[in-house]
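[job 4471] stage=fold_predict status=RUNNING
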Amino acid sequence: QVQLVESGGGLVQFGGSLRLSCAASGSIFRMNTMGWYRQAPGKERELVAAMSRGGVTNYADSVKGRFTISTDNAKNTVYLQMNSLKPEDTAVYCCNAAGLTGAYRSFESWGQGTQVTVSS
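[job 4471] inference complete, writing structure tokens
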């Protein structure tokens, strides 16, 4: 199975920066999308940023201009560079990946999540 391992979360001050990393491992024939979701207490899970195989990106309006998603296709790794962090960015961030493990078999995997806390 495809497994995702996240790193880079932690506690930062208002206006600070963090870079999250998520490495996918397992039998991956083709990666179609990789992205990041987050969920704060009392809030619904939301898409933060995602990138398709063709390089098309999608960002939540609340993070546009502050966050940047990038991928290293050779390593099946996705990154989320987070700048100008605000307390409202505090949430558990989860990595997501979807694609094919074979020509006729799809997959979708989630990481366990990493806590990002922004102090004021």
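[job 4471] summary: The mean pLDDT is 96.
[job 4471] exit 0
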